[in-house]
Amino acid sequence: MTDSDQQSKNTKPIAIIDDDLSYSRATERLLKVFGYNVVCFPSAVDFLAHQDHPEYQCLLTDMHMPQMTGYDFLQKIRADGNKTPFIFITAHKMSESQLTLAQGFIPKPYEAEKLIKAIETICQ
């Protein structure tokens, strides 16, 4: 990986939105090893409450969370005009209609290589 590749990965953070702290921390560590800047939120409501959002490379979110599901979160940000690439990371099956708004789906437990490949593909 060249220095310019490393810098390009760090220009915008990736947001992880997941109520499962162990998955958030593991995913954060993995992405940092690959040179990504990462910001974690314990829920979609917490993400939305932060008014000082930077631009994100992509949003990684769980589907089933308290207060607001990942799908409801995706619908909300799309309705607000946010076009940030979106990847669901969930242990639950998703319907075709749920997948149409997102750019990716990674099942839990995920394979690190598949997650990194999905991010690299979607965030080009």
Characterization of the model:
With 124 residues, the protein is α/β, with parallel strands linked by helices. A five-stranded parallel β-sheet has the order 2-1-3-4-5. α4 links the parallel β3 and β4. This is Response regulator.
Order of helices and strands: HEHEHEHEHEH
Number of strands: 5
Shape: globular
For the record, what CATH class applies? Alpha Beta
Helix content: 40-55%
CATH topology: Rossmann fold
List the helices and strands and how they pair.
Layout: H1 3-10, E1 14-17, H2 21-33, E2 38-41, H3 44-49, E3 58-61, H4 70-79, E4 86-90, H5 96-100, E5 104-107, H6 112-122
Parallel strand pairs: 1-2, 1-3, 3-4, 4-5
GO biological process, one term: phosphorelay signal transduction system
Domain Response regulatory: 13-123
Pfam families: Response_reg (PF00072)
Gist of the model:
43% of the residues lie in helices and 17% in strands. By secondary structure, it is α/β, with parallel strands linked by helices. It starts with a helix and ends with a helix.
Supply database-style keywords.
124 residues; alpha/beta; Rossmann fold; five-stranded parallel β-sheet; 6 helices; phosphoprotein; Bact_response_regulator; Response regulator; Sig_transdc_resp-reg_receiver; CheY-like_superfamily
